[in-house]
Each structure stands twice: as C-alpha cells, then as structure tokens.
Amino acid sequence: THVWTVLLCAGVAGQICYHLCGSVYFRLLAEGVDPNYRHRLGWTPLMVASMNRLVTKALLDGGADPNLGDDFSNVYSYSREKGIHSLEGDRPDIFCAVLIHCLLVLTLFLPCDLVLVIREDEFSNRLNGRANFRGCTPLHYAVLADDLRIVHMLLEAGANPLLTNELGHTPLAYAKKGEMQTLLKEWEGKFQEEQRRREAEERRRFPLERRLREHIIGQEGAINMVASAIRRKENGWYDEEHPLVFLFLGSSGIGKTELAKQVARYMHKDIKKGFIRMDMSEFQEKHEVAKFIGSPPGYVGHEEGGQLTKQLKQCPNAVVLFDEVDKAHPDVLTIMLQLFDEGRLTDGKGKTIECKDAIFIMTSNVASDEIAHHALQLRQEAQEQNRRRLADNLDDVQSSHKITISKQFKENVIRPILKSHFRRDEFLGRINEIVYFLPFCHSELIQLVSKELNFWAKKAKQRHNITLLWDRPVLDLLASGYNLHYGARSIKHEVERRVVNQLAAAYEQELLPKGCTLRLSVEGHTEDPGAPGLRLEIVGEDSTSQKLDIQPPFNPEETAHFK
Question: Which positions ≥6 away from 26 have C-beta within 8 Å?
Fold first, then answer.
C-alpha cells in the first residue's frame, strides 16, 4: 500500500515531490516494505516507475527485481479472467483517487471500463488498452516509453534483454531505430555470450550423464551414447545440415521413453513445448499420413494442419519422440526419411518447416528378445564378477556398464532384423546412433524396488500419516517378480500386488492406527508358491512388533461360479 502511495505522489506532485518520495521510499524499505509487491491487477512498482520516469533507481537499490513479468494481459481479457464487476474488495490506498472518479459514474461502467480506469490512473494512459502486456518486464515498459536513461539504468541493474513477453517479443522488438536499438543489440550480445559461458560451465560441473543417471536406473551404455552425441551437438562438433537421429531398441518398460523425456528436460526449460511425442501406433494406415503433416488443399481438416508440423512450427529445435516407430505405415516412414535427411518437412499447405536443430528419437521393440537373451548370456558369463560387485550399498552397484553388445552381434543379428522390418537401407542409414537397452541386472532391480517402495512410503506418510519401513530381504523377494518382457513395469505391478494390496485391505479393515509405524518383512519359507511371502507388522514405541491379521476381502470358493 505504501509503495503505491509513494508512486502516486511522485506521479502527481511532479519533480519536487519526486525527490521527497525517493527519500520516503528508502525509509519504507528500512521498515521492511517489499519492493516487488504486486498491484492487484498484476504489475510491480518497478514497471510503473520504468514507464513513468519515477523512482526507478530507488526501487532498484532497494532490491526490486528488474526481470519480473507482468501478470496483466489487456483490459478486456483481464476483466473477464478476474470477473471484476464492482469496486468492492481490499485495495491499496492509491485507489482512492480512482474511487472518487469512478463513484460519480459507477452506473455507466462496464467491468472492462473499471479495469481501463485503474490501468490508466495507476499505471499509464499512454498504452493501448487492447494490446497484450502479459509477461512484459520493466525493460519492455521502459522501451515502450522510449526512455533511454531508464533502459540503461535497468540494463546496468541486471535486466535481461533476452526475456520475452507472452507474445514471444523481446524489448528490442518495441525499440525505435537509433540509439535505443543499438543499445539493446549490444546488451543482447553481452547476455548471449554470458549465457553461453554459464551453460558451458554448468555442463562441465554437472555433465549430462550425471543428470540422466538421477532419473534412469541402469542403462549405462545407452546413457553414455546419447550424452556423447548431444555433447557433440552442444559444442559445435556436428553436421548442422542434418538433425540428430536416434533409434532406441529394447523391450517394453526398460527406460527408452523416460530417457527421451529426460533429454528434452535437459535441452528445454519448457518441456511442454520442447518435447513432442508421437504415438506411431496411430499412423498404421495409409490415409493417416494426413494426420502427420496435415491434409492437402480441398480435404477436410486442411486448415488445422498436421499433428507433427503444427508442433514443430512452434518449436523447431524440439526433442521429438516417435514411439513404437515399427508400427507406422511405410508412407509415414517415407516422410520421416525427408525429415531425417534434409532437416525439413513440407506440410499439407505446402509450407516448409526447417527443423535441423531438432533431436529425433525413435523407439522400437523390434529385436528386443534377441537383445535381451544376448545380454543375459553375457551376464551369465560374467556372473562371478557381478557377485563380487553386489554390496549392501545400492548406490555403489552399477554392473550393467560391464555388459557390451558386440559389433558382430549388431551386424549379424540385429541389422538383418531391422532391414527386414523397415525394408529400406536408406532409412537405417539416416540414423546417427542405434542405442541398445539391456535387461536389468539384480542390483538394478533392487534399486527399482527401493524406488517404488519409497514412492508408496511417501504416499502413506502424506495421506495417512503412516510410516512404512522394510528389511533388505523384502527387496530381494519383490525383485524376483521381474518379467523380462515388461521391464520396470513388472516391478511396479509386483509392489502393488504384494504390498499395496495388503496396505489397502488393512486400512479398510481399520487395522492401521493413525500415526503408526509399519514394517514389511519376509515370512518363513512356504511350500505353496502362491502364498504371500510378505507380512505387515505394527512397530510399537518399545520396538515390539505385532503382525497384522488381514482378512481376505472375499472367499475364493464363494466366487468360483464366476469363472
């Protein structure tokens, strides 16, 4: 409230009051006033100051952030979004001047008229009420006001000239020719160079391999191969005329899609725009090619555009995932051939989309059985070595990188299968790297089980205030539920079937006191392989434990007639 009062005084009382308000503002800062306090319509004091030549330096010295974006869009959109229909509500003191004016003609006002009056009286009357200002920074407003002195002051204070508003425009887009454009171009160059330096330093300190290992369990060979290719691209050691193309091979649930997502998160801050996923099982028929690039003129859906081309227009350097590419129609593969070779795509409207900076990742289950059995054979040969590496410290166990698919196996076994399926050498020839995903070894399965149990332990604590503990043998027992064909999904289902089902039944039968501690442990050996191998115990404050007597939800004999 005090912030807006000071700004109003400075704007109304002129230059004499300007210096007085500057000193007042310093006193307010000392009292703990937030310099980034937002007006109820979305802007900050620094935005007002930058537009109206007010106490900009005082605000910057007081800690105002020059890189905050405006939440205000335009008069009409904002009145609809916020549903402003009256002058009721909690408002800063600065509204007093507006209120006096508005009350005289309140009956004539529409909601958008009220927003317009507030915007003009408390921000500026020099801006177009219909224009979109969402995301504009103080630097945008200073450029719109054509105030070279304020622009220079903001830049010196750390304002980023590369920040864009909701329309995707930097401050330079609004600058008049002459000194303003020259100044902004110079500072854009400085920021770009500094940004490249910081990114390079960040890559050295925190390499991509390390980032990917935080989210991907195992798959050392795949991680290293992908990271090496992206490192070449980031550091300028790549063919800029062709995009980067990967083919991920391996069985389902083994981390292919997750690795593609993590690469997109690394390459783009906004993963919604920077990651495009195309389920190729939707393009199995010839006529579905139109969904890919858009219908030609004269056909239904021509104006809508294609699913891929529409998204690539918005982000030409996106990470594009073609999931289960082996299911796509050959005509779709022909289109992808042009995409991979020339780095451009022509849509149904005849417009060409340049996407040479994109990264294309295809996944396929083709030859997954051959890859899995070959890897298991290699692991059996190295079983003694793996046994020595197995330790209680799960983070120290990473034996999968010792297993390497031989070049002979790739050429003599895998390539003929790929050639037989895709039926064209030129398609395979445009793939930069064929990445092999191997079945999980025992130590990696232990990590997967631990991750899944930790997920449910967190849920139990958040939702029911129940602490869930488990012994090491529990991890080994649940890891035995691994299915080679379903990968990590089989571990997820095993934990749900053997652990979460018991938790849900115990909760329904009111066997779990609020705030209790539960421990999972392995029951003694039983001859019946179908019997549950896990038991739930409540741990008391004196460390004593009591087994839960969980009754089956139904009697199998009573439901036999449903079979």
Answer: 58, 62
Q: How far is CA 520 from CA 274, 368, 548, in A?
A: 42, 35, 11
**Mean pLDDT, each 10-residue run in order, the chain (563 residues):** 50 42 57 79 88 81 89 79 50 39 40 74 82 92 93 93 91 92 94 85 86 91 93 85 93 93 88 91 87 72 75 91 93 89 83 90 93 84 61 47 78 92 86 93 92 94 92 92 90 93 90 89 63 79 82 55 39
- Residue ranges in 281-346 assigned as alpha helix (H): 289-293, 307-314, 330-342
Angstrom distance (rounded) from CA 362 to CA 239: 20
Contacts of 95 (CB under 8 A, 6+ apart): 118, 122
Counting Cα atoms < 13 Å in the Cβ hemisphere of 352 gives: 7
- Give the C-alpha separation, 392 to 551, whole Å: 35
CB 139, CB 146: distance < 8 Å: no
- CATH 1.10.8.60, domain 442-557, yes or no: yes
Task: Name the pTM for this structure.
Answer: 0.70
3-state SS, residue 319: strand
Domain definitions of the chain by residue range? 2-197, 208-420, 442-557
Helix (H) or strand (E) holding 415: helix 415-422
CA dihedral 450, 454, 456, 459 (to 10 degrees): -170
Give the pair of three-digit tokens for residue 467. 């602490």
pLDDT of residue 263: 94
Helix, strand and coil content of the chain, in percent to the nearest 5, comes to 55, 10, 35
CB 59 within 8 A of CB 153: no
Question: How many Cα atoms are found within 13 Å in the side-chain-facing hemisphere of 449?
Answer: 26
Task: Round to whole Å and give the CA distance between 245 and 127.
Answer: 47
* Entry field: residues in the chain: 563
Please report the sign of the dihedral spanned by the C-alpha atoms of residue 238, residue 240, residue 241, residue 244: positive
CA distance 6 to 93: 10
Q: Is 61:150 a contact under the CB 8 Å cutoff?
A: no
CATH architecture for segment(s) 208-420: 3-Layer(aba) Sandwich (3.40)
Question: HSE of 189 in the Cβ direction (CA atoms, 13 Å)?
Answer: 5
Residue 13's CB is within 10 A of a number of other CB atoms, namely: 12
Residues 320 and 358: beta-carbon distance below 8 Å: yes
Query: In 235-362, which ranges are continuous DSSP H helix?
Result: 256-267, 271-274, 289-293, 307-314, 330-342
Closest CA relative to residue 418, chosen from 370, 483, 482: 370
Query: Is there a contact between 297 and 290 (Cβ–Cβ < 8 Å)?
Result: no
Q: What is the pLDDT of residue 234?
A: 83
- Stated as kind and residue range, the H or E segment containing 428 is helix 425-429
CATH of domain 2-197: 1.25.40.20
**How far, in whole angstroms, is CA 139 from its chain's centroid?**
28
Q: Beta partners for 51? A: none
Both tokens of 339, joined, read 């995409």
Per DSSP bridges, beta strands 359-364 and 534-539 are unpaired
> What's the pLDDT score for residue 205?
84
